[in-house]
Amino acid sequence: MTVSSFSQQPSTTIRRCGGSVCRSDDLFTTLSALDADTLARPPHSIAPLFKVLSIPCPLPLRRYAIAACALPVLLLAACKDEDKDAHGKGKPGQIKLKELDSPKDELSKEVEAFTGNHTRIVWTQARKKGASDTFAVSEDLVLVGIDTRNGLGIREILEKPGNYSRPLISTDGKTILFTDKNTVRKGGKKHYKPYIYKTDWRGTKPVRVLDGYATQCWRDPKTGVEWVYAVRNLRATKGLSLEAQRLVRFQLEDPTKEELIYDDSYITPDNIQFSRDGTRASALFPWPNAGILVQENGQWQAKKLLNGCWTAYAPDNSGLNWVFDGEHKSVTMYADDGAKSWSLKFNDAPGVKGREMYHPRWTNHARFITLTGPYSKEKNSSGNVINKGGGSAEIYLGKLTPGADKVESWLRVTKDKQGDAYPEVWIAGAGEAALAGHQIRSGARSAATAGTWPVDHSGLLLVWRDREALNTFRDRSGQKLEARLDSQGAARFGRCNEMLLDGGSFVMEEESAAPAVAHFQDHAPATFEAIVLPTAFEESGSASSDKPNANQSAQVLHAPGMHLQLRDGKLTVSKAAGQSWKSSQPLPDSPFHLMVTRTEAGFALYVNGQPAELQPFPADEVAPVSDAIIFGGGWQGGLLQVALHDHALLADQATAHAASAQARISSLPAAPPRVRVKARLVETSAMPTPEGIEPYTAALVAYVYEVQEVLEGDSPTTEKRLLVKHWGMLGREPVQGFPRTEGQIYELVVERQSAHSHLNGERVMDDTTAFDLEPWFDVSSPRVTPAK
């Protein structure tokens, strides 16, 4: 839908009367001109007028005068009938709604029996039956809803095809808002210029309110002012996930009154929901960095909880919030600002059969949630099951137990296979509803802090703490930046949320890397620092022949004018011109803090804050010229707390930074027990494809084995069956050795998945029947098959 799709139309209305289209105001203007003199004219002289108006003329001409007098009454009656659709229900924008004392139609009765009160639900729907538009990107949608107290059941509120993204209901239940994304595809990317519109349950012609993408309506309990929260400045993207630069709010009744809420990082709009007191909210910073916003001393801070999607926050003051997992089947529920957590299944409704669900969202009542599903691919279809399998998705309501430890019951609202998406639910009397046993604690430590690292915040070119951090920082000018990494090869994240570099490398995203690349290219003073997790710490137990041998160089950092490699356990530092230096002593084989500074005089090396000697080294190869910042490459190690500075830190600063890093090093978890077995493959799952997991770039695949022999470690299970999750795709490339063949025996090196919390939120392909088995994780070192 273009921006003008919802623009004001001329006041003249067109109605369909008796099967023909007539412009009603022009028609009655013409009829009013049939005064006594006109009607007194010969019948044959006014017959052409009736013909123009498409009025059948079977009457003798002498009766035209009588017919003309009766005509206005007949036309009024016909147009009145046309205000109803084929089911006798009023057309959008033309009906007069009555609020009944109780529901009359069967579905409304069923809904109210479930929710216990007057309920309104609105959602977006594909206009063509069976069409899939899960992310509401097309211009061929309609706005659909049900009000249990108007007797009309499910109906099209706005039937004109358009883009009706993320419908919202005001806190009093009367106003409906939606966003027209106004998407333009250009240069392989989607460009957005969204506008927010409002309508009502009559389907009144939408009125444009402001630019932006609306995310929630919230009423201030102290002032009674209704606020609409929205994101602004959506960046152009190739993927499906939206990313905005700012979160704002404006008053529904006076949109000119607007406030900035958050702009410290990009933010994804699905779902941003607020607590009743307005001090907490769910959000993505952006996807897949799922967490919460916390207000402290009038300022909003972000706290990441998990990698995932579709966050939501309870509408009471319980402080409960969730993160939807990468399998799209369950959520991790959090309390006390992330201090407590537990899991809830969202795919156990009758008829869902364990399949994927989507659009999970808390209603305005703390005990009720809504979502869509189930999602399943059609035969011979390709692509994302969520994106391509939404044609059969229906609207569901779920009722939580008083303590939100599970979903106690489900109700399927729709049965239309019409591509339902983005449900929003309003339940009367929800303002006093609350979950039991939980409460937002005032003054609770809410937002994650970066500790004292980095000690020197001036002149930062990059700060990447770990995968769980938001990794935002400000440069010397005060500009907000974000460190973003793209994986290459089989690079991935490890159990300490570090860059795990045995199978590939990470490259700074071009946009976020630009300032650092420009600085390093100028050969100006600079500093690199990181916590290094050596091979001995990261050893995966893989027998792969791809491991580098002692004489091969393993890359740690590749930046313009600074190339760091490991060889024989020692660090080599090179310039692009081929000048190289090598540490005189081997580096530690346990986690340590590494710092390398660059000045006009050369390089300086610090290990755990202590100076280490660098000796000139005749390079046997010239470091390639780089216009990127690359971490890792053929190295069985990992990196944490990586920073680039635009100046050379001094010796006392190296000591301070190392001391700060030591706090993180001492908190690293111990290696979990590892088991090596021979096992026969008995169940497989479908392999992921790049299109099928979008917007994810990596995915696990679940297999079930029967253990034949335990080679090392304790038996992983009391029964013979073993559920193992393998990497099936990394960096949008298939992992070598998969798919595997049922009946074959394989050697596995596995650890309990519970020891690898970094996997929570990852995309998982699981078609197995092993619902009751504890999951294990294959820790062998993967390799990918590059695209041809």
Commentary on this structure:
Mean pLDDT is 85; it is low at 1-5, 7-89, 444-451 and 540-551. Helices cover 12% and strands 38% of the residues. Strands 28, 32, 33, 35, 40, 41, 42 and 45 form an eight-stranded antiparallel β-sheet that branches. An eight-stranded antiparallel β-sheet has the order 31-34-44-36-37-38-39-43. The radius of gyration is 32 Å and the shape is globular. The protein has 788 residues and is mainly beta.
Put the structure in a nutshell.
By secondary structure, this protein is mainly β.
Task: Annotate the secondary structure layout.
Elements: E1 14-17, E2 20-23, H1 24-32, H2 36-39, H3 43-52, H4 64-81, H5 106-115, E3 119-126, E4 141-147, E5 155-162, E6 165-169, E7 175-180, E8 183-186, E9 189-192, E10 195-200, E11 207-211, E12 213-219, E13 226-234, E14 244-251, E15 258-262, E16 280-284, E17 289-296, E18 299-307, E19 309-313, E20 321-324, E21 330-335, E22 340-345, E23 356-362, E24 368-375, H6 385-388, E25 394-400, E26 407-412, E27 420-427, E28 460-464, E29 472-474, E30 480-482, E31 485-489, E32 492-493, E33 499-500, E34 504-508, H7 510-521, E35 526-533, H8 535-538, E36 554-559, E37 562-567, E38 570-574, E39 580-583, E40 592-599, E41 602-607, E42 610-612, E43 614-616, E44 630-631, E45 638-645, H9 651-666, E46 675-683, H10 690-693, E47 699-712, E48 721-730, E49 733-734, E50 745-752, E51 763-765, E52 775-778
Parallel strand pairs: 47-51, 48-52
Antiparallel strand pairs: 1-2, 3-4, 3-27, 4-5, 6-7, 7-10, 8-9, 10-11, 12-13, 13-14, 14-15, 16-17, 17-18, 19-20, 20-21, 21-22, 23-24, 24-25, 25-26, 28-45, 29-30, 31-34, 32-33, 33-45, 34-44, 35-40, 35-45, 36-37, 36-44, 37-38, 38-39, 39-43, 40-41, 41-42, 46-47, 46-50, 47-48, 48-49, 50-52
